[in-house]
Amino acid sequence: MADTVNDLEALHGAAVEAISAASTLEQLQEVRVAYLGAKGKITGLLKQLGKLPKEERPEAGQRINKVKAAVEIQLNERRDVLEIEASKPKNPSDFSLPGRRLATGSVHPLTQVTEDIVRSFRRLGFAVAAGPEIEDDYHCFDALNTPADHPARDTQDTFYLGTKDRQLLRTHTSSVQIRAMKDQEPPVRIVVPGRVYRRDSADATHNPTFNQIEGLYVDRGVTVGDLKGTVEFVFRELLGKEVKLRFRPHYFSYTEPSLEIDFSSPLTRKMGKEWLEIAGCGMVHPKVFENVGYDPEVWSGWAFGFGIERIAMIRYGINDIRLFYENDMRFLNQF
Amino acid sequence: MKITYNWLKQYVDFDGSPEELGDHLTMLGLEVESLERMGGAYEGVVVAEVLTRDPHPDADRLSVCRVNDGEGERQIVCGATNFKAGDKVPLILPGAQLPTSDSAKPFVIKVGKIRGIESHGMMCSGKELGASDDADGLMILGADATVGQPFAAHLGMDEIDYVYDLEITPNRPDWNSVIGIAREISALTGSPLRLPETPIKEASESVASQVQVRIEDPDLCGRYSARLIRGVTVGPSPAWLKSSLEKIGIRSINNVVDITNYVMMETGQPLHAFDYHLLARSGDEAATIIVRPAREKETFVTLDEAEHELPAGAVMIADDSKAIALGGIMGGLNSEIGDTTSDVLLESAHFSPQSIRATSKKLDLRTDASYRFERCADIGIAEWASKRAASLILELAGGELQQGVVDEYPNPEEPRELTLRYAKTNELIGIEIPGNEQRGMLERLELRLLDSSESEGRFAVPSFRVDLKREVDLIEEVVRLYGIDKIPSTPPRGAIGTHEYDAVHDDLAMIRRLLSGMGLAEIQGQTLISDKAVGIPDGADIVPLEHPLSSDMNILRPSLLPGLVTVLQHNANRGTHDVAAFEIGTVFGLKDGQPVENRRLGIAMTGSRAPGFWRGEDEALDLYDLKGRLEQLLEGIGVRGIQWRAAAEPEALFVEEGQFGLGKQVIGRFGQVQPVSASKLDLKRPVFLAELDLDLLLKRRTSARSFKALPQFPAIRRDVAMLVDESVSYDDVIRTVKKAKANFLQSVSIFDVFRGKGIPEGKKSVAYAFVYRDRERTLKDDEVTAAHTKVVERLKQDTAAEIR
Predict the structure, then answer these.
(1) What is the model's pLDDT at position A3?
(2) Is the pLDDT of residue B99 over 70?
(3) Residue B511 banded pLDDT, cuts 50, 70, 90
(4) Residues 134..163 of A with a Cβ closer than 8 Å to B: which?
(5) Which residues of chain A have a CB within 8 Å of the CB of B493?
């Protein structure tokens, strides 16, 4: 027995060797059983302690237990290594294979452009307003100072309904100006996006349905300078800081003075033009104020409006307006 | 409207370049649509005379010529054969470019040797010069051509000019004339406006004894003046007149007609010349011009040889026996000026814009005259324009002007008077323009100052400014002349806006965000669709159009679904079979005969549940993919308590249709499109559609959210699998569970529905998970068992469930 105990170092050495030689978890388990199992070599030594003289037992016990603890640690360390080894996949993943995707939705480009414009106006304190698409002559034309025999009112240009009151599809969002001003006391500060209709056959630049947006601001002491300042703010936000704007006199029945707005940017120069017409605007005509019951001596205001499709076409380089209304997924997915 | 730089400069001096003038015009409100340079071609090309022509010693097909270029002789080697000594030809001198047109890439003519012989220039064909299409040999000029004269001068094209194409806004009829535009330049620059002299020498016999004018309805014709020139010689116009008209696109006809056109472009006043001898007269009596409304069913042949049936309200010019002109639009074939005309009756009149517009439109006959009258010509200038034309006729066609003028002008208009408060201008534009500057601008625009003070001025408006009606119109004039670009921008300021729609706009944006997050693409469909489109419900109250563009677009959409189906079909036809899309838009219906609008959300889905993947999983979408998105949307926008059920009577569009709503109010419908109809549209996989009434839905949403503390104690789950009859719905089970009123029951969810092997016909196996939890403590097993037993017993009793 003394010999066996004396051989403890050799036994430990053999265990360490067996542990490092084990290359699988199963082999390691065999080593564990061989040394620490019920019939294991180290367990066996402990069982034989009783055969030793009483005075030798404590020391021998300590020595055996020390070896046992060391072997246990070494077994566990080896197990950790082998477990990590065993968890490696048999066939490594191909990291170049395409991933599993979800369908992605999108927001229509016209909506995106509208939202961008609305956001700029809202930063300035404008509320978003809307009105009916089916209108009457009064809100669409008369109240806006459009003469009774103006060509825009012709059945060639405007869709009239086959209803008994012969309503029409609004030809511009300006009809909402009238409704908003009739509904609320000044000051008024609204931005109106919406669908409008003209009796044009669909081609690359026309669709009978299209979208406009316009702003209206009525307050005391509103000036042409205010109009220019706001227009410049909105278009710089929309088309970039480097955009140049030009205002030139024009004619609309519901504003006086009336102006058209041209812009110039690297985009227009790419299109081969220094100036590109983009919007109309002006100071609200006193006749319009009278029609809605505002006193033009007290209130002044400006309005400006433009087509959403045109902005979207310029911004994205789209050359056919019909693409917006065909809704081809290959088109929509690009925005 | 086209005008030229040189023509304009006859009336007003202008120092800047043609481009600068164009910028000025644009900034005055006369947008320049194009600016084109004319003339000045053929630089370095002269008329030369061939003196000798000898064969080239070393080339059979070439000849060596000596030519006179007007300054001396030079030697030219030439390949053409169609000429002889003595011919006059165009010659390009060395250093000049060929061709001279802008389009092609030019090359420079140099002195060089051709087969050993020096050539000092090149004689040209018409084609080489771009002057004609003739490429066969040299262009041989007439014997009268002047040797040494620039070729352009020989062609009468030496004058350089610029043609502006201007967009004239309908409020400014006075701009439809060269003088009107010159007046603007004059007002802008302060350089005086020069009107042409109108020298006339009148004969002793008075026009009144030879022409009488009777206006039957002064509302149709407010003024009619007539002059008579006898003994004219009708012939071609001189070059200056011809080229003035041709440059702006008017064909030259003869001197008399050209003068009427010239004066019309100059003054904006349309004129007409009649052959006096073609008017009915008896003996030496005066001819009578009658201006009258067209008679019912009256027909008339205009000078373009077209016969028209005249609409009511048309203005006719007639003599005692017949109509001779369609007033304000076009003259008659029966009284046209011809080569043999000797006596010319010159009309200068003013017709009602409404009448001319209506007639011109009904007859689809638009002329330079009708264009001007329908925009309202200047009634004040009619007589002066007639005098100007008479003066030119005497100068260019000879003859004797009969003494005086017949000028019927029953109700001469008093000039309009307007007052401008100078402070009002400043208030509106936001800067100070002194009153005397404002007054000066208006006076330069020929407004006559009637009364003046420090603070305001009263002005008489000239007859050509029909657009100036109230004070703000004068403010606009000041803004234009001051320069809109000089008014500084002020940064945005002022009130906070309000509108009831503002919140709706955000709700719609949220719906878009939720749906696009669930993989749906927003579309925008047409509002106008066909009444034959798929999915228009039978008996729907459709809003018709009075004059549709086509049968494809003859109604206002009563639903978003037909448009969505069109989008699916459009994409399928282009090879895109997996589509999930939505639209937010207005639909239209009739209520008591009146059109009504309704804002809706439409959804369409077809194809695969998920994008293709290399593991080959490809499941088609089913009804519950759509319903799941609807549920998530409704939860997302804060609508609770929605009930779902099968529609009592599915519409023909659907093979199966469900409805959902709150209480009795139906908010939307959804279902699978009848596969037979879908496959006719090339939609091979199941198609699912839904449509929701957003006006109703948004009223029922709540944006209120309140936080519930997270549970602190564990839950206990019990599963139940049971056999029930096919007729027992999910809703039946949930209702029954609720009736059991089990303690601690926190949630119930279904996790399996199975039919098939081992399940009897008419039955299904369903499995539910029940979760029990208390907020205050951990539940004991026997408490849960007691509660759960209550649920199971209730299910057995009420749904005849057989627990498995």
Answers:
(1) 54
(2) no
(3) very high
(4) 134, 149, 155, 159-163
(5) 226
Q: CB within 8 A of B71, min separation 6: which ones?
A: B148
pLDDT band at A2 (very low <50, low <70, confident <90, very high): very low
Chain A to chain B, count of Cβ pairs less than 8 Å apart? 264
Q: How far is CA B252 from CA A296, B157, B262, B780, in A?
A: 52, 16, 10, 110
* B399-437: pLDDT as tens digits: 999 999 999 999 998 999 999 999 999 999 999 999 999
ipTM exceeding the 0.90 mark = no
Nearest CA in chain B to A230: B492
Does residue B103 surpass a pLDDT of 60? no
Q: Which chain B residues are Cβ-neighbours of A188 within 8 angstroms?
A: 495, 497
**Predicted pLDDT at B495:** 80
Does the beta carbon of A272 lie under 8 angstroms from any beta carbon of chain B?
Answer: no
User: pTM above 0.80?
Assistant: no
pLDDT at A5: 61
Mean pLDDT across chain B, nearest whole number?
91
Round to the nearest angstrom and report the end-to-end CA distance of chain A. 86
pLDDT tens digit string along B475-490?
A: 999 999 999 999 999 9
B370 and B360 Cβ atoms separated by less than 8 Å: yes
Structural contact between residues B605 and B626, judged by C-beta atoms closer than 8 angstroms: yes
Quick one: average pLDDT of B214-228?
A: 95
Q: Count Cβ neighbours within 10 Å for each residue of B538-572 and write b for 16 or more, e otherwise.
A: eeeebbebeebeeeebbbbbbbbbbbbbbbbbbbb
State the Cα–Cα distance between residues B280 and A104, nearest whole angstrom: 82
Task: Give the separation between CA A211 and CA A214, rounded to whole angstroms.
Answer: 10
**Residue A232 sits at the chain B interface (C-beta within 8 Å):** yes
Nearest CB among B471, B492, B501 relative to A129 is that of: B501
* Encoded tokens for A105: 């939705």
Looking at CA atoms only, how far is residue B493 from chain A in angstroms?
7
Per the listing, tokens 């050539």 go with B119
- Compute the C-alpha angle B419/B425/B428, nearest 5°: 130
- Chain B residues close to A199, C-beta within 8 Å: 547, 549
> For residue A222, which residues of chain B lie inside 8 Å, CB to CB?
494
* The pair of three-digit structure tokens given for residue A293, joined into one six-digit string: 């019951």
Q: How confident is the model at residue B126 (pLDDT cuts 50, 70, 90)?
A: confident
Nearest to residue B720, comparing CAs of B742, B704, B698, B700? B742
**Is residue A129 within 8 Å of A190, Cβ to Cβ?**
yes
Beta bridge partners of B165: B2, B34
Q: Mean of the pLDDT values across residues B599-607?
A: 97
**Could you tell me the two tokens for B263?**
């004066």
Tokens of A207: 């669709």
Strand partners for B451: B458
Which residues does residue B596 pair with via DSSP β-bridges, in sequence order? B589
Rg over CA atoms, chain A: 43
Inter-chain contact B497–A161, Cβ cutoff 8 Å? no
Domains of chain A as residue ranges with CATH: 2-86 (1.20.58), 109-332 (3.30.930.10)
- Distance (Å) from the C-alpha of residue B617 to the closest C-alpha of chain A? 10
pLDDT grade, residue B105 (50/70/90)?
Answer: low
**Percent of chain B residues topping a pLDDT of 70:** 98
Q: Do A97 and B614 touch (CB under 8 A)?
A: yes
Tokens read off for B226 = 């007539």
A contacts of B594 (beta carbons < 8 Å): 163, 165
Nearest to B472 among A189, A246, A286 (CB): A286
Model confidence over B128-137: pLDDT tens digits?
A: 776 666 777 8
**CB-nearest partner of B497 from A190, A195, A296:** A190
A212, A173 contact by CB (below 8 A): yes
CB contact under 8 A, A180 and B588: no
